Amino acid sequence: MIENIIVGGGFSALSAKLALGSTASFSILSHTLIKKNNLNLRRVRDFEVNKIFQNFAYSYAYFGNSEKNLYFHDRMIMGGHSNIWGGFIDKSTLSPEILKSLADMGIILSPINNETCYSSSSKGVHQLRDVNNKILDVKNFLTPDYDGHLVSLSFNGSFYRLGYIDNISGDLKILFSKKVILCMGLIQTLNFIIKNYNRDLVFALSEHNHSIGFKFSKKVEKIGDGFVMYYSLFSAMRHFLGIKNRLYFLDSFSNLFPIFIRQKYSDELSHLQFRFVKDSRGNLLLKRISGPEVFGTSIHYFNLRINNFSLDDFFKEYFPGIVFLGAGSIKNCNPGPISNYILNDAFEKLSHNVN
Ligand SMILES: Cc1cc2nc3c(=O)[nH]c(=O)nc-3n(C[C@H](O)[C@H](O)[C@H](O)COP(=O)(O)OP(=O)(O)OC[C@H]3O[C@@H](n4cnc5c(N)ncnc54)[C@H](O)[C@@H]3O)c2cc1C
Fold first, then answer.
1. What's the predicted TM-score (pTM) here?
2. Rounded CA gap, 230 and 218, in Å?
3. What average pLDDT score do residues 126-143 get?
4. Pick the residue with more confidence: 268 or 236?
5. What is the pLDDT of residue 115?
6. Of 43-47, 116-120, 213-217, 251-255, which gets the smallest average pLDDT?
7. What domains lie within the chain, and their CATH numbers?
8. Residue 208 and residue 77: Cα distance in Å, rounded?
């Protein structure tokens, strides 16, 4: 019998590991790289997000996206989105306990400044890096004990029974655990809900309004609200291509090309409501009920509600004590990075709360 099982291999799973602490007993169920033929799911290119210099990852789901201008992201691979992310985090919201646990694991919070070719309207924003000065990739910090895809979950009053498809053999295998921590990312959380529960549910998500533009000076202008990040042309190119190390040679040219990409998250929130419906060929599709014309470009959508219940409240009846981590379970956040909220949530839900 496993004490704690963490399902997922992205930043939320790493947050769970940090919050459980070094003395806790836990196992990790996640896919190294999902193999198409083992899951009876269809590939959804719409959700895939890949960059040239990082491993290609796929998205497979029970549902597709028929809506234009709705942007969701999914990477079924060890490390999840941290393979390709910016690693930005707001240090000012993290407790000394969290900062210590990051440092103990060899994770550095690197300030962003002229030298790093970024600037921001918030002094708290840092970049998560490893000891080789590369942007943090969770796959270098977590190893799955079970390489597979969670497909079912049940609770018998004392412990959980987890069914998963083994990534190598394609067989259905069973695990038993006293506690379950689900860190599957938003699309795969929806996938899990659709597979296991009544499909006639109304879902909702929120995001801070977001825009991208150009500027010809990296001086952060005084802005009334929200959060602004500037990327020099070279740092934006590095992100676009998925290059995780610093390219000092190119970075030093930055000042010669005073062109900056400005990313702005405003205080204003947009709310999206959607459901899943079958088309004439029987394919399940995500359908917008209400919300803005464009949703998801911020990448930091959060607070998943199901029939007006938060994830935690919706599942507490079926699965007492279950813990969800990730953007979907963040109820409120300021514009800007979301990783600090994921970490704080993990420590709130898990630390001092384990066997
Ligand atoms: C391009 C890009 C840049 C970003 N930059 C930033 C940034 O700078 N700062 C920031 O705060 N946020 C950023 N984000 C948002 C970022 O995605 C989140 O902060 C964070 O990485 C989410 O981690 P997660 O573990 O919740 O989900 P994911 O990264 O999606 O990881 C989910 C993991 O669970 C596994 N999994 C899924 N389903 C199952 C299953 N059924 N069984 C077993 N395993 C499963 C997957 O394989 C994956 O390993 C960015 C996102 C994108 C797309």
1. 0.94
2. 7
3. 94
4. 268
5. 64
6. 251-255
7. 2-111+128-200+276-287+296-350 (3.50.50.60)
8. 27
Dihedral of CA atoms 38, 42, 46, 49 in degrees, nearest 10, equals 0
Classified as helix, coil or strand, 345 is helix
Name the closest-CA residue to atom 45, ligand 1. Answer: 8
Residue 336 Cβ < 6 Å to ligand 1: no
Alpha-carbon distance of 230 to 104, in angstroms, equals 30
**Best of 164, 299, 311, 344 to mutate for ligand 1, by most ligand atoms within 8 A of CB?**
299
Q: Is the CB of 263 under 6 A from ligand 1?
A: no
Burial class (CB in 10 A: 0-12, 13-18, 19+), 279: exposed
Q: How far is the CA of 22 from the centre of ligand 1 (A)?
A: 23
Contact criterion met (CB below 8 Å) for 151 and 195:
yes
Kindly report the protein residue whose alpha carbon is nearest to atom 34 of ligand 1.
Answer: 8
- pLDDT beyond 50 at 179: yes
**Closest ligand 1 atom to 12 CA:** 25
Two tokens, residue 328: 């979907």
Q: What is the pLDDT of residue 213?
A: 86
Burial 163-193 (b: 16+ CB within 10 A, else e): ebbbbeeeeeeebebbbbbbbbbbbbbbbbb
pLDDT tier at 355, thresholds 50, 70, 90:
very low
Of 7, 11, 49, 186, the residue with max ligand 1 atoms within 8 A of its CB, to mutate for a pocket test, comes to: 11
Closest CA to 304 of 148, 187, 152: 187
- State whether the beta carbon of 188 lies less than 6 angstroms from ligand 1: yes
pLDDT in tens, 23-45: 899 999 998 887 666 777 889 99
pLDDT at 226 over 90: no
Does ligand 1 come within 6 angstroms of the Cβ of 76? yes
Q: CA-to-CA distance for 2 and 206, rounded, in angstroms?
A: 35
For ligand 1, whether the C-beta of 86 sits within 6 Å is yes
**Residue at 27: amino acid letter:** S
Contacts of 297 by beta carbon, 8 Å cutoff, 6+ apart: 71, 210
Q: How confident is the model at residue 9 (pLDDT cuts 50, 70, 90)?
A: very high
